[in-house]
Amino acid sequence: MSKTSDVTKPLCSWIETLKWEDIPEEVRERCKFLILDGLGCAIVGSHLPWSAQAVEAVLRMESPGGDCPLLGWKERKTGPLPAALLNSAFIQAFELDDWHGLAPLHSNAIILPALLSLASHQKTVGKTVSGQDLLLGMITGCEVGPRVGLAVGGGNILSRGWHSGTVFGHPASAAACSKLLGLDKDQIEDAFGIACTQACGLMSAQFESSVKRMQHGFAAKNGLFSALMAESRYKGISTVFDRAYGGYLNVFTLGASEPAKPDEVLKDLSETWQLMNMNIKPYACMAGIHATIDCVKELQAKHTLEAQYIKKITIELGGPAFHHGGWQAERPLTEMGAQMNNAYIAAAQIIDHDINMKTFASANLNRDEMWELILKIQCQHREEVDQMPHHNKLCTRMTVQLENGQVLQSEVFHPKGVKKPLTSEEIIEKFCHLTTDLISPQGQQDIIQFVSNLDQVEDSSELFKLFNLDIPNPIA
């Protein structure tokens, strides 16, 4: 068998031998707050219309019963695989979840649902998953996903039409679940081989399709499935990252401007922790649009910026952000399309002075004043951004021409949350703000306390007791 690299087996050995004591304290603590943010996103997303549709459709396909709860659905349980799929879809339901700054994927939506399903599933065979074990699995997956993503081009994969997180997410989920199950290096290699052959995801889902909300769930579910199959010694593709023909890295860089970079998979393992590059979103929209919001806010702080006085707006973006969010919006626009479109988000910030859940309520999506302004906004690909270092790839420049001839300009290199990480206190504030009208104050504090002390918890599946309630639809 021909090979182009030799990274699969060393990665599997690293996963097998990684111990809690090997992980710096700051990484452990950050992981807790990453999980808290994911749970907040699940609360918001659990009863949105497309989430409710998914629950009813998926549970109709499944046999009655199961031991894995659905977050925010009182007394609703199913098997581990559909639970991972649906809980992931809740976290991804409203574009509020974490995002890796260099290799774009939403780790909470991939890893956390798979691990929570596994924690519940393990109890059926008499095993208890501690909070420390859950954190160790989470950290493992958070390291693998971005490294594999960087090896196949990072954000550039978006420009070729792949849903990057779903592609990178399969090995991330498989790694996390393999670690939680205590698999040996050969089993982990099988889990990767089973997971990576299922990796996929088309980015055109962002325009109108509810399936975009579920695609990270495919990775969560399939990674969990792969680890459970590997636990039973089911054989996967050997050295799946290394093979020249049909290997993961090679296939997902076909047609790319640069070849695969396998060295990224092992680069600085246990020295540079990719979890620390995961950013928490302050706004409910695609991460590549956050800089657009910050540009508008900067102009609003300095000038009177009212829609009726605007002649034209130009938004200049790097390649991945342009292809992902610079497309021409057409009326009527869906909630999904609005969250992925620079022009809509810019118009909403100018008119409403805020981006929140109600921004995407159906009554607000197709207002005449909104579309009068959207038609004045043009997005352009600014190629020089593509040559900038990774940490500046989301650089956005906005130029506003007013009817009186005045020209205003703002340029943002490091958007809030995406390139300026939210602090632990800001993550708690976001959690409380998002969930205030959805769960009780005591419920909020119970969840915050449970997650803050997760490394001391004996049974991580006890978390589900705090979510055994029906959440209202936040945009009803």
TrEMBL record:
Residues 283-456 form the MmgE/PrpD C-terminal domain. GO terms for molecular function: lyase activity. Pfam families: MmgE_PrpD_C, MmgE_PrpD_N. Residues 11-252 form the MmgE/PrpD N-terminal domain. InterPro entries: MmgE/PrpD_sf, MmgE/PrpD_sf_1, MmgE/PrpD_sf_2, MmgE_PrpD, MmgE_PrpD_C, MmgE_PrpD_N. Belongs to the PrpD family. This is Uncharacterized protein. It comes from Mortierella isabellina (Filamentous fungus). The lineage of its organism: Eukaryota, Fungi, Fungi incertae sedis, Mucoromycota, Mucoromycotina.
